[in-house]
Amino acid sequence: MDKIISKTHISLLLSMLKTRMVEEKIVELYPEQEMRCPTHLYIGQEAVSAGVCQNLKKRDYVFSSYRSHGAYIAKGGSIKGLFAELYGKKTGCSKGKGGSMHIISKEVNFMGTSALVGGVIPIAAGTALASSMKREKRVSVVFFGDGACEEGVFQETLNFAALKKLPVVFICENNFYATNSHQLTRQAVDNIYKRSEIYNIPGFKVDGNNVLDVFKLSKRAVENARNGKGPSLIECRTYRWLEHVGPYFDYDLGYRSKAELDKWIKRCPLTTYEGVLLEKGVIRRSALDKMKEKLRREIEDAVSFAKKSPFPSVKDTHKDVYEKKR
Amino acid sequence: MKRKDSSIRQLTYCQAINEALVQLLERHRNIFIMGLGVDDCGRIFGSTRGLSERFGKKRAFEIPISENAVTGVAIGASLCGMRPIMTHQRMDFMFYAFDQIINHAAKWHYMFGGQFPVPITIRTIIGRGWGQGAQHSQSLHSLFAHIPGLKVVMPSTPYDVKGLLISSVLDDNPVIFIEHRRLYDEKGAVPEEFYSIPLGKARIVKKGRDITIVANSQMVREAEKGAKELLKSGIDAEVIDLRTIRPLDEDLIFNSVKKTGRLIVADTGWRNCGIASEVSSSVAESVFEYLKAPILRITFADTPTPTSAALEKTFYPDSEDIVYVAKRLILGKKIKRKKKERAILDEQFKGPF
Predict the structure, then answer these.
(1) Nearest residue on chain B to A101, judged by CA atoms?
(2) CATH assignment of A6-299, given 3.40.50.970, 3.40.1190.10, 3.40.50.10090, 1.20.1310.10?
(3) Separation CA B193–CA B310 (nearest Å)
(4) B348 touches chain A (CB under 8 A)
(5) Band of the pLDDT at A326, cuts 50, 70, 90?
(6) Best mutation site among A117, A129, A199, A311 for testing chain B: the one with the most B CBs within 10 Å?
(7) Nearest residue of chain A to residue B113 (CA atoms)
(8) What is the mean pLDDT of chain A?
(9) How far apart are CA B111 and CA A134, in angstroms?
(10) Active-site entry in B88, B109, B136, B180
(11) What is the mean pLDDT of residues A153-167?
């Protein structure tokens, strides 16, 4: 199967599977009302974060928005830390101060997420500025949605990144909906990938449900950033299966149809890729089942760790408003 | 020969800022400064003069007029161990960056459980008079002081502006550093060495026993003038310069009020939900039993800033207002008030701003 080695295929599959299975576990448990934080699920979009992060090294920086479990997992964030955070526990990746919308994994340079749609875009450019000042050859990647492209800060950051030729890759995950509003009720033209052209930043469009396409395209963008050739913008066209926030389908709300959802479910990035790998013999059915079983156990462990973990103490409320080292 | 202590060098407020920046950039490789005007011919009213020549255009540079994005850039750089300084020539422009300042800089440390400090300093300048009008004159320091996670500094002297700027840049938290344009040319003693003044410590400018006047930034100057004038009527006022409005040095204020029993708060800003109100309510909550009179606030008129010099004189409070209010509190009766006569606020200041 072309030039991609099977190790890469397995790694991509594992990343997508892990994300999907974590999200499905959240869907199962969320109605218990114990994960008491707004949770924006990523089911249907897994190929984007898996494909992009496959090209990154541990030292590279990643930022995402509030729909960030995918990027967090693909960059190597701990799922124990994730579940504990969802349950508001002290052992959570943000010590119970962040919830689903504010997750972080300092160890793997997953640098944080923002609930304010485009809020992390310039922050990612800032890490890229620091890398370039320190000549570190790190790449910064920022994931954001189609809605973020409507915020001024997106254009402001593109200009700044071009001006300073920063090692940053802008990944737009266009899932077509901002909460319940379709892209074309908000944007005059369907051309997000073109919006960097005016700054001489190359822009690309890719099928965000095809993990190999995402992987190959972002590979070039990441290499360019690392080699001092400046930023790129990639629009990955994909689809959010579930409601904007929460564990349920929402076609009953009427803003999008079940037929539309079904069309995208048929194009599921995970089952499509699984099928290809099985067919080409990159992985055998038994190995795939084993992989799933291993993940299932890992996720069960993480949930049980999270549920058993202590809540932060009353004293923790006042902790960490300021850094007090000095 | 005039007797003059040559060891105490005199610098203007602006020169003191410049010296602090030079010394910071000299000592710490991870500090850089960016802003509109940092490297143009004006150099932020002269305060960034010589920086790009000395430290290069990678450490002192111009930015696009993208206040929000560039604030985010500063935050991002700080997450990687840099200590960025960002500048705004007027505070009004900074409001474009509310999202990055309030939603991101102030929160990043807390909401991720204390893993990433955000050591950024945002320099910004407020003013007074010379027809700055509604969108070039706002002092919304109180608004920033409302936000947990930010520190807000308002130096009033050349000595303080240097020491506090050094502390702010070396602090591990986001600091809003508010300079006053009217103070830029004022001279004062500034040591050559690299020194810092702790954030959160106010300063007694003049000791007194009859009334406490708490002030910030340029209003400290008005309070000093007022206190001098009050002495003529036998009123001995204590003047306190807040220096930082978040954290607020409550102890120093409380101790003064315990002694004097009276309090005026003079703020270079608006009254509603402002720092003058914050100081007043803290005093009322904590040392109420020492108060001999109501606490009074001296603030801007409750309007947007007008442009005409004739209107400015009623808009901006000054030492006369402080004197009037203090006398009313202490002498306990209505005093006839002289009508303000000056057509403009400060004749020495040459525009444009």
Answers:
(1) B111
(2) 3.40.50.970
(3) 44
(4) no
(5) low
(6) A129
(7) A94
(8) 97
(9) 27
(10) B136
(11) 98
